[in-house]
Amino acid sequence: MSKTTFTNLSSEKQERFIQAALTEFAANDFQSASITAIVKELGIAKGSVYQYFDDKLDLWLYLKKHCEQVKLSYIKSIKRSEYSDFWKFYRAMYANGINFDLENPLCSQFLYRVGFKEMSPQVMPHLNTWKKQANAMFCQLIEAEKKAGTFNKKNSTDVMAHFMVTMSMSIAELLQKKYKVDFEKNIKKGKPLFGGNSKELMKAVDELIGLLEKALK
User: Is 202 exposed, middle or buried (CB count within 10 Å of its CB: 0-12, 13-18, 19+)?
Assistant: First the structure.
């Protein structure tokens, strides 16, 4: 993770560095991403990067954690107590995920690459950590809903969480195949990952919710 030399930078300098690094890692896989390109954009010496981070992998892991924390803050800002049933709450979490994409396009693009495109051997052991976090979060939600009577208490919480996380992640494929959302094209054009196609995304979410609601009664 980052060294004190990085955390001691002003918030403005940290953010500028993060944005430059995300621009490079969102557009390229780990092996192809260039530290040289990052420092050229920033106008700093290459050695500065290694004063901030141990190596390229350390920087990549920092960016991953940073983006995951930003996304998680959007998800956790939606409170279950504000919705009359679980599925309205679930839909609201997705809707706020669109806000995350629109307001943090580089983070969204980077996490998409991590989750669906990255194949570099150096980072393979670190690719599934977000899925594990999502699974743990869904387990907590499901247990609470079981107590509230939303879900059958006899059903396995772990199996239900795995099913919901897997189905949720499949929305990306549904958007590409059915709604013709071109993620790669949006990334190349510097657009948000979903390209502002919020209507198409929510159609896909509503289809998913309909299936999940029937399956998990």
Answer: middle
**pLDDT digit string (tens) for 41-65?**
999 999 999 999 999 999 999 999 9
User: What parts of the chain have a pLDDT lower than 70?
Assistant: none
The pLDDT value given to residue 155: 92
Contact 168, 75 (CB under 8 A): no
- Is 160:171 a contact under the CB 8 Å cutoff? no
Task: Give the architecture-level CATH label for domain 4-215.
Answer: Orthogonal Bundle (1.10)
Taking every pair of Cα atoms in the chain, the longest distance, rounded to a whole number of angstroms, is 60
pLDDT at site 1: 74
User: 74 by DSSP, 3-state: which?
Assistant: helix
Q: Is 29 left (phi over 0), alpha (psi -120 to 50) or beta?
A: beta
Tell me which residue of 202, 66, 216 sits closest to 141, measured CA to CA: 216
Q: What are the boundaries of each domain within the chain? A: 4-215
